[in-house]
Every structure is written in C-alpha cells, then in structure tokens.
Amino acid sequence: MAAARPPRVVPGEASESDSEPELLVETGGEAPAAGLKVPGEASETEDEEEEEEEEEQQRPKTPPVLAEEPAAVWGSGPSLLQQRLREGTGRLRGAVGSALRQSYGSAARSLGGLEGALGRAQVTAAAAAHCLRLARRDLRAVADTIDIVTACHLLPDIRGQL
After folding, report:
1. Where is the composition biased (Acidic residues) (predicted)?
2. I want to staple 82 with a disulfide (CB 3.0 to 4.6 A). Which of 26, 78, 120, 157 is the partner?
3. How far apart are CA 117 and CA 40, in angstroms?
4. CA distance to 46, 58, 62, per residue, from 53 (Å)
C-alpha cells in the first residue's frame, strides 16, 4: 500500500480553517518571502486592507460607457449575436406565419364545407316545406269535397240500402 500523502497548499490559497496546519509547498525547503503579495490572496492585517483601499482610490476611474445601441460600442456593423438573433427571429416569424396560414386555411376549408352542407340543408328544408304546403292544400280540397258530399241532400241515401 502507498503511504498517505500530506495535503498540499496551493500558493495564494488560504487555509480552510484555523485548525488546519499550513504546509509549505515543495520549494526546495525555502520559506516564502515575507510581505510577498499573491494576487487574489486575502489580506491578513488591517494595514494591508487600508493600503489596498488607498491604492484603489488613487487609481483613475473610467466613467461607465452608456450607449443606446451595442453597435456604437463594438463598431459600426452588427455583432454576430445580433445577426444570429435576426436570423432566428426571421425563422420564427416564418414558422409562426406558416402555422397560422395552415390553421386558418384548414379552418376556411372546414367552414366552406359546412357552408355547402348548410346550403344544401336549407334547399332541402325549403323543398320539404313546399311539399307540405301542397299536401295541406290538397287535403283541404279533399276535406271541402267531403263536406259538400255529406251536406248535399240531392244524392240518394245509400246508407240504408247496405
């Protein structure tokens, strides 16, 4: 079995807890120079913090760049992202337009079929109504004829002879 290796400390990395012993990286036995600043290393004293704050205050600050259009910041032409967004928007518009045309077209065809069926039903209903009017007229004529025959006393009484 291999012997357990002690953990290594990466330069510039703080220990995770106070109980964790700080180990020197294998640098040939030399201790790191005192006062050496490692970028990203947390300051250990308040003096270092104050020095860092003073350095930040002395550095000239650049004003933030505010622009309406990203093209004003990055150059005259549209960026690759803008081109891709335009292409994607165009494809999306085309797909939505196609879907709407297809759905509206199928709805229009369905309505056209329903309109034809309704027209045929109306014609059939009108024809049936006309036939019913003719039948009623004929039935009234027959009823009138029967009334005349039954009311007439000129005809011989055939009821008694049967």
Report:
1. 43-56
2. 78
3. 81
4. 11, 9, 17
86 phi and psi angles, rounded to 5 deg: -65, -45
* pTM attached to this predicted model: 0.35
DSSP 4-38: PPPPPPPTTPPPSSTTSPP----STTPPPPTTPPP
Q: What percent of the chain has pLDDT over 70?
A: 56
Tell me the C-alpha distance between 129 and 118, whole Å: 16
The set of residues, in sequence order, having a beta carbon less than 8 Å from that of 37 and lying 6+ positions away, is: none
